[in-house]
Design brief:
Low-confidence stretches: none
CATH class: Alpha Beta
Shape: elongated
Strand order of the largest sheet: 1-4-3-2
CATH superfamily: SecB-like
Distance between the termini: 15 Å
Strand content: 35-45%
CATH topology: Bacterial Protein-export protein SecB
Largest sheet: 4 strands, antiparallel
């Protein structure tokens, strides 16, 4: 990170306070139960899909964060048989008070370094809850580690 950008980013981070986190959109697609078809291996994955922001005022920033969680099943660890049996897509909306202005360069750093840490506990809870509601065993996804 260039020193000028780093300083600008650190000033932005120091002046940010989270006000609210809410779910704006949630979709779930369950295509079956793993035990119905004799599948032996389940794999799950999750990712931050996309992020965007809106400047609400000089001191309020809204961030939309799309997250995806998927469970795949495979027969005997055979990649050719890998298919999705559960997809969960969640759009979170995070509202922040800010002291500094944001631009696309700072937002990219903020999304990479800060948003995952703030949103991950909420995403973990939604995943666990939606799996149970879909009749699947709850999976607790690991704690987020910023690497």
């Amino acid at each position: 990170m260039k020193s000028e950008v780093a300083e600008k980013y650190n000033n932005f981070r120091d002046g940010v306070e989270i006000v609210n986190i809410e779910i704006r959109k949630l979709s779930l697609n369950k295509t079956g139960n793993p035990e119905e078809k004799g599948y032996k291996t389940l794999i799950f994955g999750f990712k931050n899909e996309s992020s965007r922001y809106e400047k609400i005022s000089t001191s309020l920033l809204g961030v939309f964060q799309d997250m995806i969680f998927t469970i795949f099943e495979m027969k005997e660890k055979d990649e050719k048989t890998k298919k999705s049996i559960f997809d969960l897509k969640v759009t979170f909306y995070l509202l922040f008070k800010t002291k500094e202005k944001i631009d696309d360069e700072i937002f990219d750093l903020f999304v990479k370094n800060d948003i995952p840490v703030k949103i991950h506990p909420y995403f973990r809870e939604v995943v666990s809850n939606m799996l149970m509601r879909a009749g699947l065993p709850a999976i607790t996804i690991p704690i987020y580690e910023n690497t």
